[in-house]
Amino acid sequence: MDLARFDFTLPPALIAQHPAPRRDASRLLVISRSGPLRHLHFPDLVNLLQPEDLLVRNDTRVLPARLIGRRDTGGRVELLLLEPVGAARWRALARPTKSLRPGKRLIFDFPVGAGLVSAPGGQTPAPFVYGNVIEKHDDGAVVVEFAIDAEKFDALLATIGRMPLPPYIHRRDDETPEVLAEDRDRYQTIYAREPGAVAAPTAGLHFTDEVLARIRAKGVAIADLTLHVGAGTFLPVRVANLDDHVMHHERFALPPETADAIAACRRRGGRVAAVGTTTARVLETQANDDGAVRPGAGSTNLFIKPGHAWRAVDVLLTNFHLPKSTLLVLVCALAGTDRLLAAYREAVAREYRFFSYGDACWIERNEE
Question: In DSSP terms, which residues pair with 98 in a beta bridge?
Answer without folding.
Answer: none
